[in-house]
Recover the amino acids of this structure.
């Protein structure tokens, strides 16, 4: 019985004690601590003024509809107290304080606050914060709010991890180049970061997205925040074009545009960096053709075709030794350079001072669409002319597409026969389409002579009828160049078939003296 009384008495004392400790000084019951539901999201806080300070912001959902926000920074110093806030908008745009997060203790790098409303009393929940249009700033101190230690977008502005980098090459100022990086946000918008090298300290460089390709030029479609010359950086939120049309991350990837970064607001004509973006981006697939000198000694170069994402082509002509101030028309013509043909496409003229021309190739001059892949198989050649007034003077020329030379070649000797001292070679060069460029080169031909040349059937020792007729050898140069695709009877013949052909070459003194052979040599299967 006494034991029962003692037990009941002990339970009573415990009950009274529990009620006592559950009350505050005003004898009011204390609220129980919230318990996490298990839902949590962490955002990254990147460095701003001090590259060694960075961290995270963890948002934890509680079962009483509150949210606990835990800040954890690394690199802070003992004794410092760093105010932290959630601001409206993106970090790139800036905005007013929406929610105060207390002070980050520099000794631990930590701060924690539990909230259920913004500073203005507007209720806020865990799901509301995950969709909030805002960002976090951590400041150096209450006395130095202008110095940011760490910063990061949150909610709908958080980055998904998807990004696209475009190269910005130097243009009018040597050495200034960099990248434009677009990062996708949760809401489909984009954070655009331009980063340039070698910009002058103190400069402010306007930057824009323009319509079309850089080779074509076009109006401004979107304006970035200017690039700070001291840091070389610009950060801009991308949500709409300058005209108000929606413009997000996915729109950037398919946009028909390019980026220009200018020297200054007072000198917009000087482009310090430039690059195609979106559908105009280059895929990395390129093809370079040689442009050899023709009528002007020393002028030669290349034509490079680069594939774009949309299948179009950037055509770049680069010549050496063009005269300063000259403007040199350039075209793609039909057929091989040997055959000649009508103009199929007109490039932007080559600037003689730089030796360069850049042109976007999407359609031929007659409006026919042409892709990069189709250019690789085009039956054509390039002519670069001296000027609009002297189109007959070709300064550089080269076959392209299916007419390009593969690098495979075979040379046959042509020995002297009836005229002492005249001899040379016949070189067969393979084209991409399997046809052949034939070059006959003789020494000691008379300057005013024109020397018919043929491939005959059989060996020179046996003799045989004519199978193919070359362009005559010019006595002044000793040269003949001929495209071989079929024999005189229209039988097709390839480079590989020529290498095994049962034939020989005769070069005659003239049309009136065909019986006089000035040079001769076996080819194909008869060669040794």
């Amino acid at each position: 019985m006494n034991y029962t009384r003692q037990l009941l008495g002990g339970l009573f004392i415990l009950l009274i004690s529990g009620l006592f400790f559950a009350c505050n000084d005003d004898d009011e019951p204390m609220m129980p601590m919230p318990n996490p539901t298990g839902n949590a999201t962490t955002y990254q806080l990147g460095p701003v003024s001090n590259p060694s300070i960075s961290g995270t912001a963890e948002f934890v959902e509680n079962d009483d509809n509150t949210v606990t926000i835990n800040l954890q920074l690394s690199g802070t110093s003992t004794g410092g107290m760093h105010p932290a806030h959630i601001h409206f908008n993106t970090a790139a745009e800036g905005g007013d304080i929406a929610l105060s997060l207390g002070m980050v203790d520099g000794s631990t790098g930590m701060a924690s606050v539990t909230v259920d409303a913004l500073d203005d009393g507007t209720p806020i929940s865990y799901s509301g914060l995950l969709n909030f249009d805002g960002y976090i700033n951590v400041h150096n101190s209450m006395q130095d709010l202008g110095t940011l230690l760490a910063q990061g977008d949150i909610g709908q502005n958080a980055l998904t991890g998807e990004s696209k980098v475009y190269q910005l090459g130097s243009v009018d100022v040597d050495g200034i180049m960099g990248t434009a990086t677009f990062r996708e946000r949760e809401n489909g918008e984009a954070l655009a970061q331009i980063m340039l090298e070698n910009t002058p300290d103190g400069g402010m460089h306007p930057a824009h997205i323009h319509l079309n390709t850089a080779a074509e030029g076009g109006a401004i479609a979107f304006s970035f925040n200017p690039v700070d010359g001291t840091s070389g950086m610009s950060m801009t939120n991308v949500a709409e074009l300058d005209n108000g049309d929606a413009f997000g991350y996915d729109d950037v990837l398919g946009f028909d545009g390019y980026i220009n970064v200018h020297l200054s607001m007072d000198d917009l004509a000087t482009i310090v960096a430039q690059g195609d973006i979106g559908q105009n981006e280059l895929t990395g697939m390129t093809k370079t053709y040689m442009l050899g000198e023709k009528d002007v000694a020393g002028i030669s170069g290349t034509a490079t075709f680069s594939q774009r994402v949309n299948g179009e082509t950037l055509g770049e002509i680069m010549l050496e030794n063009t005269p300063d101030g000259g403007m040199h028309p350039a075209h793609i013509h039909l057929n091989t350079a040997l055959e000649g043909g009508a103009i199929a496409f007109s490039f932007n003229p080559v600037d003689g001072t730089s030796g360069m021309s850049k042109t976007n190739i999407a359609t031929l001059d007659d409006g026919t669409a042409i892709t990069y892949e189709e250019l690789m198989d085009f039956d054509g050649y390039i002519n670069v002319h001296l000027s609009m007034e002297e189109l007959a003077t070709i300064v550089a020329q080269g076959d392209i597409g299916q007419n390009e030379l593969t690098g495979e070649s075979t040379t046959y000797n042509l020995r002297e026969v009836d005229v002492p001292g005249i001899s040379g070679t016949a070189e067969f060069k393979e084209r991409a389409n399997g046809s052949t460029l034939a070059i006959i080169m003789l020494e000691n031909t008379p300057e005013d002579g024109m020397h018919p040349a043929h491939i005959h059937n059989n060996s020179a020792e046996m003799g045989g009828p004519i199978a193919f007729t070359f362009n005559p050898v010019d006595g002044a140069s000793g040269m003949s160049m001929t495209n071989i695709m079929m024999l005189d009877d229209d039988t097709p013949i390839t480079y590989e078939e020529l290498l095994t052909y049962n034939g020989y070459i005769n070069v005659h003194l003239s049309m009136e003296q065909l019986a006089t052979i000035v040079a001769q040599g076996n080819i194909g299967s008869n060669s040794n």
About this structure: The longest strand covers residues 36-47. DSSP finds five helices and 38 strands in the chain.
